[in-house]
Design goal:
This protein is mainly beta. It is globular, with a radius of gyration of 20 Å. The N and C termini lie far apart (about 50 Å). About 45% of the residues are buried. Bound molecules: fe (ii) ion.
């Protein structure tokens, strides 16, 4: 990151990625800034990129996986394997895609405003393992099993099914994260919707979640590297290391619980083994995008181990998972939520039955 000469922003989270100051980026021909969230712990990395209006970025390829989320503007991406035909697909605000591993890709701005995007990758792992940027960015190998130039590769699919408790969606392109259909995930909270997208045959995948106004998720923990991006509504997230217990306030550790605010453009990354809990205090449904490990098609050993169970983040702790049921949580969690809602003038929609 240092050798790229870009600004570096650090923290547990960031209130609004749209406000990050960017600097010219010689290698890409656009602008950029690196964001290092402590919870990434070397498993994932991130930058904000900008494509000037009427411009395009330099083509690049790399032997790490990268998921790109457009948060401003519209344009197109050209993709090709070495010596093969180029293919192009168009995108707009809140589109998401992942250039297949080591395929050439070139991002083009199709509008009059600058395009801004967030790129989350597993580059830190790959860089740490090989310590050779020339290999990472100039490797001649073609991963034909990942991408063979299929013309429908970047079409939005409707290949959806459940695996264990998780609703999966195999697609290499999502045109609008804000309006994508989601499935129910009652295990995570009353009327919570979650769909996990498996993209570009990556182990770096993600999910989209939505839950009603005046409501919050159950707390859970897993391994490091999961980045969450707030898209709709606003609220806060509580984070605490699992060593502080299921009831950190009752245990006298309330001062060590971290509270981060989120709204559109807010991002945060819970460190590995930290409980985290998302609260919606706005007056509309909240929608989040997560980019993370934990693919069900191409899992990694470390993400399974961190959850102790295939469905770990969806299974209560008392049943071998890593989720705190509402009835087992610290009573202070609910009290703080209801106090915040009163200040915001939003009614709680938590069903009483959830606590019994
Ligand atoms: Fe999580």
């Amino acid at each position: 990151m240092k050798s790229e000469g870009l600004p570096l922003v650090e923290g547990l989270g960031l209130e609004d990625i749209r406000q990050v100051q960017l600097a010219p980026w010689r290698r890409t021909g656009g602008k950029g800034a690196f964001i290092h969230l402590y919870g990434m712990e070397g498993f994932t990395g991130m930058y904000v990129g900008e494509i000037p209006s009427g411009g395009a970025l330099e083509p690049e390829k790399h032997v790490y996986e990268e998921v790109i989320f457009i948060f401003e503007g519209n344009g197109a991406t050209e993709v090709w394997q070495e010596g093969q035909k180029k293919q192009m697909f168009e995108w707009g605000k809140w589109s998401l895609f992942s250039p297949p591993l080591n395929s050439w890709h070139r991002l083009i701005n199709g509008g009059r405003e600058p395009v801004k995007f967030l790129a989350v990758s597993n580059a830190p792992l790959i860089m740490d393992l090989y310590r050779n940027a020339d290999f990472v960015f100039n490797c001649p190998y073609t991963f034909a099993e990942r991408y063979g130039g299929e013309e429908t590769y970047f079409n939005v699919t409707n290949k959806r099914y459940r695996k264990g408790l998780m609703a999966l969606w195999e697609t290499n392109f999502i045109s609008d994260i804000g309006s994508a259909d989601l499935e129910t995930a009652e295990e995570k909270g009353a009327a919570v919707l979650i769909t996990q997208f498996e993209i570009a045959a990556n182990c770096l995948i993600g999910h989209i979640s939505q839950w009603p106004a005046g409501r919050y998720h159950k707390a859970h923990y897993h391994g490091p590297g999961a980045t969450l991006i707030g898209l709709q509504s606003k609220g806060y997230v509580l984070l605490w290391p699992k060593d502080l217990g299921l009831r950190p306030y009752q245990n006298g550790h309330g001062d060590k619980v971290v509270e981060l605010r989120w709204g559109e453009g807010g991002i945060y990354c819970p460190p590995g083994g930290w409980f985290h809990q998302h609260f919606n205090t706005g007056n509309s449904a909240a929608r989040h995008l997560a980019i993370r490990f934990g693919g069900r098609i191409h899992p990694t050993g470390f993400s399974i181990a961190a959850k102790r169970h295939d469905d770990g983040v969806l299974v209560p702790i008392k049943k071998g998972g890593t989720l705190i049921d509402y009835e087992d949580e610290d009573p202070e969690i609910r009290r703080r939520f209801e106090a915040t809602l009163r200040r915001e003038g939003v009614a709680s929609s938590m069903p009483e039955v959830a606590y019994t």
